Amino acid sequence: MKRIAVLTSGGDAPGMNAAIRAVVRSAFASGLEVFGVRRGYLGLLEGDFLSLGPRDVANILQRGGTILLTARSQEFLTEEGRAKAASHLREARIDGLVAIGGDGTYRGALALVEEQGIPVVGVPGTIDNDLWGTDFTIGFDTAVNTALGAIDRIRDTAASHERVFFIEVMGRQTGFIALEVGVAGGAEVIVLPEVPTTPEACAQVILDSASKGKRSSIVVVAEGAYPGGTSALAEAVRRVGGFDGRVTVLGHIQRGGSPTARDRVLASRLGAGAVEALTGGRGGVAVGVIAGEIAEVPLKEVVGRRKDIHRRLVELARILSI
Ligand code: F6P
Asked: Which ligand 1 atom sits closest to the C-alpha of 255?
């Protein structure tokens, strides 16, 4: 293996730049040439490559977003599109690829391995933390801390006005962010896609809290938890409970910002781990961190599998919110 490429695809996540830096510098240390691909799989389709040396990734460790840009490509979803992407890699004499992203990125990576025989290694980069084969994804810790800062601020005004606040956090169809910030922020109720609830049950918890002397409540809602969305849930809970309440949707603020130390270290370890997998001839895996150690799991075992939330944390949240 002499030349490798690196791309970021799907939703950006804080720490992706730290992973790019780790890929470039650890590859350089192993005597490899590295190319960045702009705009993820879209850039592969267009042959949009740039040479990256150790100095090109200086001063990006602390920056959110991705210097390589990211996109979602419809054409890459087709077999013809992937064949075209692979031909661009071959023309550039690139022997292996590191794909940093989430579920969709991993699907694309697996297709390139299986259809085109290109060695690809996946690096988990998504704030959602919903990937199999790793305990943590790059960006999750930063997103949780960003959301937590917002919730702490909302708690101040909620307490002053003796109000109920419904705060929606990201996570697509999973509740990893919601559960973590719910516990860290002392939410009275955490609404998760993995634990279905009803407006009646939510209202009851809030009314019970009030009867125990709580004068304000925070309800953390994962964006995919309630079919009609957080506003519909809030409206229904208000109607059933007979109290007022405000809705705050945190949105894309959770995707930006400087990565936490934990995300920078994770990204550095995983970026280097991806290069190690490629140079060791182990294309077709996703690198992850399991019980503190870097692990490699075949992409075909990762794609299509859903990691479950920490069920005991759900129970702990309920106990601690009395
Ligand atoms: O996967 C990351 C994520 O931020 C999800 O939490 C969210 O549902 C989605 O991306 C939003 O995507 P977009 O930026 O395309 O609106």
From this structure: 4
